[in-house]
Amino acid sequence: MNNRRLLKTILLAEGEKIILLLRPSMWRWFWQLLLCIILIFGDFFFLYPLVQWGNLGLIIFAAVQLLALIILLKIGRRYYFTSLIVTNKKIIDIDQLGYFNRAISQEPLGKIADVHGRTSGIGGALLGLGDIFIFLPETNSQIVISKIKNFKNAVSIIASEQEGYLESHAGSSQNPEQLLSKIKNKIGTEKFQRLLGDKD
Rounded distance, CA 163 to CA 182, Å? Predict the structure, then answer.
């Protein structure tokens, strides 16, 4: 897929390169796609009675087809622009909320505390789809990208890039909270609390 239009929406720093570009699966919009199919084929199914109505019937037929086309264009636009871009320096979350409504946020790799993936339901297991959760402790929020193919591989790549970034910036840009968070993630919560002498 040509990503030229998508990449025009982001700004990369000097020496920054894209490592991974993730898009949700089309299964995320299954019900909307099903509605479009019903509208299109249902409209043709009732074509003969609509023609009997004359001009009004043709207007109804055209309106239903136009509605289905608008929904398909909206799905296509949301699929194309909704993405998570991982570079060697940051993550960029682009969420196409509506046809003209787009939210873009970015966070340095050093501000990520935890990355994990999860699959749920029979559909997720059969189709190999999962959700990716990226936790940002500084804002106490998380980025969620749902219905991703090969999500395990994506989680591994993001974690690897984050680790490489932290190693290359160790001691230069990390504050004590980030260093403690990294230690806690590596040794686990229980050992971390024992290390601090917290018995609760």
Answer: 9
DSSP 8-state symbol, 110? G
Beta bridge partners of 83: 94
Separation CA 84–CA 63 (nearest Å)? 35
Structure tokens at 84: 């998570």
Digit-coded pLDDT (tens) for 110-169: 888 888 888 877 777 788 888 889 888 887 888 888 888 888 888 888 888 888 888 777
For the CA atoms of 110, 113, 114, 115, the dihedral, rounded to the nearest 10 degrees, stands at: -30
Q: pLDDT above 90 covers what percent of the chain?
A: 18
Of 134, 127, 135, 130, the closest CA to residue 118 belongs to 130
d(CA 111, CA 177): 10
Residue 19 contacts residue 87 (beta carbons within 8 Å): yes
Tokens of 190: 């229980």
What 3-state class would DSSP assign to 31?
Answer: helix
Contact assessment for residue 119 and residue 125, using Cβ atoms and an 8 Å cutoff: yes
Other Cβ atoms within 10 Å of 27 Cβ, number:
14
Q: Pick the closest to residue 80 from 127, 23, 121 (CA basis).
A: 23
The strands making up 141-149's β-sheet, listed across from edge to edge, are 114-118, 129-136, 141-149
